[in-house]
Amino acid sequence: MSHQDLPENSQPSHFIRKIIEADIAQGKNGGKVHTRFPPEPNGYLHIGHCKAVCINFGLAKDYKGHCNLRFDDTNPEKESEHFVNAIKADIEWLGWKWFGDVHFASDYFDQLYDFAVQLIKQGDAYVCSLSADEAREYRGTLTEAGKDSPHRTRSIEENLDLFTRMKNGEFDDGAHVLRAKIDMASPNINMRDPIIYRIRKVHHHQTGDKWCIYPMYDFTHCLSDAVEGITHSLCSLEFEDHRPLYDWFVNKVDTPCKPQQIEFSRLELAYTITSKRKLLQLIEEKHVEDWDDPRMPTISGMRRRGYPAAALREFVKRAGVSKSENSMEMSALEVCIREELENTAKRTMGVLNPLKVVIENYPENKLEGLQAPNHPKDESMGSREIFMSREIFIDADDFREEANKKYKRLVLDGEVRLRNGYVIKCHQAIKNDKDEIVELRCTYDPDTLGVNPEGRKIRGVIHWVSESASMEAEVRLYDRLFTEAKPDRNKDGKTFLDFINPQSLVVLKNARVEKNMKDAAVEDRFQFEREGYFCLDTKHSSASKLVFNRIVTLRDSWGKIDS
Fold first, then answer.
1. Which among 502, 496, 497 has a CA at the least distance from the CA of 480?
2. Does the active-site annotation cover 346?
3. Are 74 and 217 in contact (CB under 8 A)?
4. Is the pTM of this model over 0.85?
């Protein structure tokens, strides 16, 4: 790759781009760029992973390189094929395509075993028989050096014999481990003779029962990078202290490539948590439905809620790439979503809290077709037919018996315009025995279709649907899952569970939508005019029951009171 192959300045520069461009200029790795995204298949991808996905795949694309998808599947007790498939689906939905076949670290278990044998033969690894408690005691602390294991001086021959017998299943789980021989006095605790292999007699989702010893992540990850020819191993800052170990393994064994690890800050999003353990707890304790619950910070949850993939990519772009803390406000994500949907979502009318209106001077049994644009600023989206009838629904929140002049909706003896329709005037509110308004009696002005009446001031415009030309729908109003921006900081002795927002999901069973919404597709996004952006729920919606998820409100109203 030459200087002419570098991307145009359409993408913001950052320190990783500068490293890559310097490597290309120097001809390092033959001028090639080969990255990888290496998730562990023990959960679903979340918003933090979204940043890593976009960085790894995006940089590879920009520099005309390749990006592998590799599952670092070294812990079969917590991993499954289900997670593998979910992660693949998320990456494809985000708009990325990996290079070649999907890779698994388990594809290299034979090579990794050979690398371990090489370390033993070089005197760089040994079999240790300390118990887990003894190993912790020997390891030392952040302020005190560790102590050498009494098994550190085993001969190469004894280590090879023990390691072979470990592989052959002769020992119980925990009886022995294979450790790298580095430095028990290192100030970096990761370098204090870390474990390379441990005995685990469990079934693996890719290799079945072939192995009863499994390599550790730190050993597997770097050497899998090397085997695959990865040039730039991009990861989050929590692995910065692991880089000396990464380099130690790569330089100690014979590999076809010496990849460079580069760390960037994680993406943290307010009002969410991203710990897989805590997300799983939310599921197991039934605070949410599953990994793809629309309130979850998972890519699957955001997809089901209706977030556009383009909006997530734009959000990651705006978050930037650096080594400094990268904590983003939820409102910043919602801005990206609104900007995308403002241009791409078709308009429709949905009445969330229906209040029946009888227009007494409108002919009975008449159904009048009216034209409404699918987008007020984009004629290419066309128009749709809506229907006017004697009985319609408006939203209960759009009526008050009395109100001041600032109230721009319907009041008793006041006039408003029906969106894309006529001007109506209310003259009676009918109540039940609980003093609740259950029906309005109105009249309409037949001369006001598309025309403002002369000499009369109309309060505003409200949305509506015809009773006979609409259909029932369930609407799910999703909001932030937590009431605290940092729910897992253990504030005042409380846990993240104490900050779950009781209003994170409000279900409206009797909403009404335009009849043409029966033809809505799962991938469609709509603006329910004056209400927000919505999409069909992929799990609960069916031909006989429409269920819509609120993607985002029309504006940021978090913590504000609507006047």
1. 502
2. no
3. yes
4. yes
